[in-house]
Amino acid sequence: MPSRRSGRAIVALCGALIVATGVGIRSGAPGAAGTPLVTSIPTPLATSIGSSSGTWATLPMGRTNQPRNTFWQLFFQPAGATSWTDEVGATATATNGGLVLATAAGRPFIAGIRPANLLRFSPLISTTDGGVTWTNGVLPRGLSAHPDSLSAASDGRTLALVNSGADARVLVSSGSLSIWRTLVTARSLATQRGGRSCEPHSVSGVASLDGNPVVGADCARAGVVGIFAQGGGGWTRDGPTLPDALGRGRVQVLTMARTPTGLSALLGIAQGSGTALVAAWEANGTWTVSSSLTLGPGGPIVSFGPAGGAGYFVLSRTASGATRLAAIDGPDVHWVQLPPPPRHSATIAFAPATASAIEALTNTATTMTVWSLPSGSGNWVKSQVLHVNIKFGSSS
């Protein structure tokens, strides 16, 4: 399926801009002892990722209070260009269920369409040239509702997470995106080395480190991080140890990524006082854990993803509806807060450190607006308005 685009320069983390403030989101330990535990953190699909050809992003648009009139859009910003373009037409099917994105150095960009309505499987599309040409594939089962349910490995394999809960299953493709086999299941992880200490009750995501598959699992045991790596004919739990202050809640692996030194992960611990987030980085078999970032009660996570290099961003809202953006740049630094993005921001785009701005993508019905935060500025500036052609009622 061919697709053409015009585009705009990539955006990125600008270190001179990051300033600590302490409003709405705070660093430190979660609530006091005895606080009731909340055991599930929603994992929004809206996110952005960078590739050699540019930056990709996905967010819901249309009438987002109506599932059949909510359409997830695929946006692309080519390297060195000047604007974002809407590429959802390349999917050739309705996107009510959401989109999942994946890429790796030297590998194609892949987008997967989650099942919705009468769609019971997941169509896949991939491109090696920034969407000029596309290759099709299909998963016989629907992708799970996690942003990490699809991963492109450097050795040419692709990992996919299907189903949920105890029925969660990781599939692997060694070439064609239409030929898959089962790699591991949530149930079988419980029998692997370290599985008993975790007691995984679901799989939350997949990743690859130097060609070796990595699986993120939600552990039933409090304080245990469920990261499992394949090797030696089996799977071994290989995750960081969290500080005692964070060990009272169940840990969710929200997302994982490969860094120049190893694996990184964004972890969530949901508690009655709010959600505590920590980032962790592995290097030479040793894990470094960040300070915690706590979102207050009633403050949902809107989006999270890579923030340039080895960092992460977290976009959230307070109970009053105010938007907050926090980022961490890598090991041995603290979470910091950026100026609050505009209302209705759905995700943030960070790209190579050579760029001069961070961008917020906002969604209102059929209009996607891009806001830029220039280096050294505390004010977001409107930089693009893109009108999206949405055919309401086409999924009825």
The number of domains is 1
**The CATH homologous superfamily:** YVTN repeat-like/Quinoprotein amine dehydrogenase
| Mean of residue pLDDT values | 84
How is the main sheet built? 6 strands, antiparallel
Coarse morphology: globular
Helix/sheet category: mainly beta
End-to-end C-alpha gap: 25 Å
Tell me how many strands there are. 30
| CATH top-level class | Mainly Beta
Instruction: List low-confidence stretches.
Output: 1-38
Strand content is over 45%
CATH second-level architecture: 7 Propeller
Give an overview in words.
By secondary structure, this protein is mostly beta strands. It has a single domain, classed as YVTN repeat-like/Quinoprotein amine dehydrogenase (Methylamine Dehydrogenase, Chain H). Helices cover 2% and strands 45% of the residues. It has two helices and 30 strands. It has helices at residues 186-189, 195-198, and strands spanning 25-27, 47-51, 54-62, 70-78, 85-86, 99-102, 109-113, 122-127, 135-139, 150-152, 158-162, 169-173, 181-185, 200-209, 212-219, 226-231, 234-237, 251-259, 262-271, 274-283, 286-289, 293-295, 301-306, 312-317, 323-328, 336-338, 345-349, 357-364, 367-374, 381-387. Strands 1, 18, 19, 20, 21 and 22 form a six-stranded antiparallel beta sheet that branches. A four-stranded antiparallel beta sheet has the order 2-3-4-5, with no helix packed on it. It is globular and about 50 Å long. It starts with 24 loop residues before the first strand and ends in a 9-residue tail after the last strand. The relative contact order is 0.18. The model is unreliable at 1-38 (pLDDT under 50).
